Fold these 2 entries.
Entry 1:
Amino acid sequence: MITTRGLGKSYDFYEQPANLLGALRSLLRRELTTVQAVRDLNLDVRRGEIVGLLGPNGAGKTTTVKMLCGLLVPTTGGLSVCGETPARRSYPFLSQISVIFGQKSMLWWDVSTRESFRIHKSMYEIPDDDFSEVVARLGELLDIGGILDVPVRNLSLGQRMRCELALALLHRPSLLFADEPTIGLDVEAKVVVRALFREINRTFGTTIVLTSHDMSDVEALCDRVVIVTDGGAAFDGDIGELRARAGIARTVVFTYRDTPRLPPEILRASVESGAHSVRLRLGDQPVATLVQAATGWGDLADVGIVEPGLDEVMSKVFSESGRRP
Ligand SMILES: Nc1ncnc2c1ncn2[C@@H]1O[C@H](COP(=O)(O)OP(=O)(O)OP(=O)(O)O)[C@@H](O)[C@H]1O
């Protein structure tokens, strides 16, 4: 579905002078600055996958997405998306893809969502029957039936995001780019959006490329993650491999019916301890050995093994790549 080889993009721009003197000088001589936003990126996405494109701020994720959907022309390298060259923006290409930018509205601001849908319908030549069916289905799934006739400027952020999603899915794209699609949504709306992504992926086989700083989105959705740092791919694999790469040990939590009598060395090594519980890092020792020892510290009620949070994992991988999370 997507292949990039040696993909690169640099931006040239003139820096804004910091003060009046600088501004006067810049009338005579301006300094051109180049930022290498994406460098030598090799990426393969197969049909039907949900791939997370992750990385710290400024890593080059949005620039990559913009090249993949044809909004930006690469400076170097080659890419093929749905068998086409995105920057040519041919009709067969555009009718197969869709893009959601969480920070940018694709809806017309002054008219209702339904009007934007109608414009979209004519642009994509969606037949009347298909259109009615998809609007009804998305209206129900996203709970927007009651707000389709409200001017977009009067919608709350969460309501607008639901409408943005519906607009993006109207022509049933086979490839969806979603750049921070859950930004600003409340917890309930995020769950709805994730469920919707899963559903369209399962039902229509839609391939999804997602960028998000919300690790719950990533855990809930992504079969595979590609971590971009400084414009290049620093990791490509599934979340299990990513956890292994970060090398953060799992922890085990022992919960007691009474207050446990913890040996001093256990107390010192604990990640946290409370009146009725203690949390320890699982090092090389077998879990069974630790559980056996834990039964001797008090009236053991429960044992739970906790994977490191994806936020912690990402933070470690980003910092190892020399970038802040
Ligand atoms: N239009 C532009 N002109 C000049 N530089 C740009 C432009 N757009 C992005 N950049 C620079 O390119 C680099 C990558 O930006 P990009 O927006 O692709 O990162 P990102 O990974 O999406 O970041 P974030 O997570 O903060 O959204 C940054 O250093 C940014 O300042």
Note: The chain has two domains: 2-244, 249-307.
Entry 2:
Amino acid sequence: MEFVEEVLQRPPLVLGVDPRPGLHGPEPLEHIRRYTLGLMEALAGKICAVKFQTAFFEALGPAGFGLMHELVVGARVLSLPVIVDAKRGDIGSTAEAYARAYLEAYPGSALTVNPYLGHDALEPFLRTAARSGGAVFVLVKTSNPGSSLFQDLPLADGRRLYQAVADHLVQEAERQRVGAWSRLGAVVGATYPAQVWELRERLPWSLFLLPGLGAQGGQAIRGPGLLNTASRALYYPGGRPDLEGALHQAEAYLSELAPSL
Ligand SMILES: O=c1ccn([C@@H]2O[C@H](COP(=O)(O)O)[C@@H](O)[C@H]2O)c(=O)[nH]1
């Protein structure tokens, strides 16, 4: 089954894994490994995917990269879809290599990508995702307070830059459809609910990855194809590793997002 089909069969909440070694005792890598495997198992019925932020694993050195690989495999063993949040983007020939590194290496998984280099730079990701049954989430309107500096710039035709990015993506999103939804998704901050609804109109077939829930002040947003994403708030509820607390937090989010579950 493709990434898109798998996530849509599950509750619309994404667990973000952004491990901070300082919170994991004297043997942090081993503790992160055990805690994350336990957390994914405990939350398996309450989430649609696990998002791994590569930056936190890269910061752990060469062993950190191996750990991320082990945890991605662990997620797939639990039948959990995986999103690699690496925000890649480069000239086409290098984008090919990034696509191999994440989409081909982890079939059926998704990758976040940066559209700044243009359409030719996105194509290798889209081609590889189509081959591997994966998906791509393009940064459209990011969750951070400074995202307006460039993304909200007004263009000569009156649109904002992020709106022009969305309008550019819509045709490709239609080409990349898997049934009613598309392999080409968008990242839209949960911290900008008005833009979430406005972009939903512009990109009707795209799943939206909505980071910013919890720690960045975003609220749960319920709607078709909206994948609410929390890292710190779910991985470290109360500011530290806590399996029970994470389970309660996931249930609290789900009571807002999918009250029937
Ligand atoms: O617009 C964006 C795109 C990606 N992120 C990533 O999501 C998580 C958010 O972490 P929290 O602890 O839930 O704040 C993190 O990995 C970011 O790199 C984002 O926040 N906003």
Note: The chain is about 45% helix and 20% strand.
